[in-house]
Amino acid sequence: MPELQGVLPVLRNMKDFERLLESHHPYIIFLEVRLSQLQVLVRTAKKAGKKVILHADLIQGLKTDAYGMEFLVREIKPDGIISTRGNVITLAKKNNLLTIQRLFLLDSHALENNIKLIGQVKPDYIELLPGIIPSVIEEVHQKTGIPIIAGGLIRSAEDVELAYSGGAKAVSTSDSELWEL
């Protein structure tokens, strides 16, 4: 399993694409991209030496079922997948992709249910949103033993440090001002 660490840039705005291609970041996370753009974007990123992680749930025009995942694996060839759905993570794992299970911290009940899901699915990483609650980052890591990526509501260098203080291995953000931390 590749080790994700530091700030992971999340591409939400296409105007930042060229900048990321020229950056030192080995990974680019694609968020909210159209299916019709995906193949060209991934191919371009890979030519620039980048590894690509796709948020499968947010690819506009893609249904994240077995056929949609088959298309991603065979035609798009990402290096990793992010999803809130256990079945998507399971399919990605079967195809030897890096897997990141995204969890939204809504309340204690949702947290416990998600930890049970994580135990069944066993992704490579867990992305917690919002990623600014160090005690919950620490708790989820202790209960699962899976490395944590903090994401969501990361707005400052202090937020990044707060996530690291809770034990996050990496921080994902679409805020380009934070990419060079």
Automatic annotation (TrEMBL):
First and last residue of the signal peptide: none
GO molecular function, a single term: transcription antitermination factor activity, RNA binding
Pfam families xref list: G3P_antiterm
Superkingdom of origin: Bacteria
InterPro entries: Aldolase_TIM, GlpP
One GO BP: positive regulation of DNA-templated transcription
Keywords for this protein: Glycerol metabolism, RNA-binding, Transcription, Transcription regulation
Record PANTHER family: GLYCEROL UPTAKE OPERON ANTITERMINATOR REGULATORY PROTEIN
Role summary: Regulates expression of the glpD operon. In the presence of glycerol 3-phosphate (G3P) causes antitermination of transcription of glpD at the inverted repeat of the leader region to enhance its transcription. Binds and stabilizes glpD leader mRNA.
Protein name: Glycerol uptake operon antiterminator regulatory protein
Organism lineage: Bacteria, Bacillati, Bacillota, Bacilli, Bacillales
